[in-house]
Write a structure and sequence with these properties.
InterPro entries: AB_hydrolase_1 (IPR000073), AB_hydrolase_fold (IPR029058), AB_hydrolase_sf (IPR050266). This protein is an alpha/beta fold. It has 13 helices and eight strands.
Length: 373
């Protein structure tokens, strides 16, 4: 509302006064509108700036989920302080990630399972002390490690390659602790039997290669695959999101709700390598490799820890009893409500058990040294 003109003004002057006030009010209104417009523009620019990465994320999630998975692993490695390195051995290249330096505790070398990669261990590494010297290597032909059509992917062939890696980075200058899961567990067990002086201690997680007392669900499925002369797909080599979901159910007792796009991304990452995975699978299931761990377990003199999920549907938990009977001094840790993917399902508990085992071995060694002196 405009104020009344002063009484001393004439009628004409009053009109001029009122007109000037109206003009001033219009100028203020225009300025206010301009300021409001500027504020709106600023909010629009800010919203657009925030929307661009969000839209890019959504596009990546919908169109290229496999790329998003790779970025996820890269971010997780960076967050945990892991660095990716390469070791060249006469034309053969190993890819591995590592953290820390050799110290009072033995270094820990980790061997992943079939068709996996070094990042398999990330959930568990989160719970291991940062001062430990940790190494996670891509197994022969997997991920960043050299793949050739002429290489030997049998258990013994993989043991030779892992020894080549160990010597290339001079890891065995001091005895180290080795951890292997599933196929990696078989390779680790045979490695221990063949190169006992390299190892301080050994942890096998749900290893394959044993003559178990009971069959698993996967064993039954493989009977069907073999009877079909491999016209049926191998359950551990999925080629569709539906098969990927079934594989995750087979490998894990804990049920993870995985979005369809992530399932598609996991399949997209694997499909280019499925022929190779089939080749490796046939090698490790061949007569020379199928029971490699069983045939070598009596030769294992390294202090041994066995970790197994009680609800393992891939490799029956009765394998733990087979090892315990053959090697009475080994430590056996059975995990409740846990399947084959121990590292993924129980990462904190697995890390705790491995660390406790290493510390207990050092304590035993220290006590023995004191008694001798």
């Amino acid at each position: 509302m405009l104020p009344d003109p002063p009484l001393s003004l004439t009628l004409f002057e009053s009109d001029l006064y009122i007109c000037s006030l109206i003009a001033e009010q219009q100028r203020v209104d225009k300025t206010g509108v301009a300021m409001d417009q500027d504020m709106m523009n600023m909010f629009a620019i800010a919203a657009g700036t925030l929307a661009i990465p969000l839209l890019l994320f959504m596009a990546s999630f919908m169109l290229w989920p496999s790329s998003l998975i790779k970025v996820y692993y890269w971010y997780w490695r960076r967050t945990l302080g892991l660095q990716v390195r390469y070791a060249d051995c006469g034309g053969y290249r190993f890819c591995y990630s590592h953290r820390g330096k050799p110290g009072l505790r033995p270094s820990i070398l980790m061997l992943h399972d079939f068709s996996a990669h070094k990042d398999t261990w990330l959930p568990m590494l989160k719970y291991l002390p940062k001062h430990l010297h940790l190494l996670c290597v891509d197994m022969p032909g997997h991920e960043g490690t050299t793949r050739t059509s002429t290489d030997d992917y049998s258990v013994q062939g993989q043991v030779k390659r892992i020894r080549q890696f160990v010597e290339a980075i001079r890891l065995n200058r001091k005895p180290f602790h080795m951890v292997g899961t599933s196929m990696g567990g078989t390779v680790a067990g045979v490695y221990a039997a063949c190169h006992p002086s390299d190892l301080y201690s050994l942890t096998l997680i749900c290893p394959v290669g044993l003559k178990n007392q009971s069959e698993s669900k996967f064993d039954s499925q493989m009977h069907d695959v073999e009877h079909s002369q491999y016209t049926l797909n191998i359950p551990l080599i999925p080629s569709t999101p539906e098969e990927m979901e079934e594989m995750l159910k087979l490998c894990s007792h804990v049920r993870f709700r995985v979005p369809q796009q992530i399932l598609q991304g996991l399949v997209d990452v694997r499909i280019p390598h499925n022929d190779f995975y089939h080749e490796v699978f046939m090698e490790i299931m061949s007569e020379n490799s199928k029971y490699a761990l069983h045939e070598h377990m009596q030769q294992i003199t390294t202090p041994l820890q066995v970790i197994w999920g009680k609800q393992d549907q891939v490799v029956d938990v009765s394998g733990a009893a087979v090892l315990a009977e053959a090697l009475p001094h080994c430590r056996v840790d059975l995990l409740e409500n846990c399947g084959h993917s121990v590292v993924m399902e129980r990462p904190r508990q697995t890390a705790k058990l491995i660390l406790e085992f290493i510390i207990s071995q050092q304590s035993t060694e220290s006590t023995s040294t004191k008694k001798k002196s």
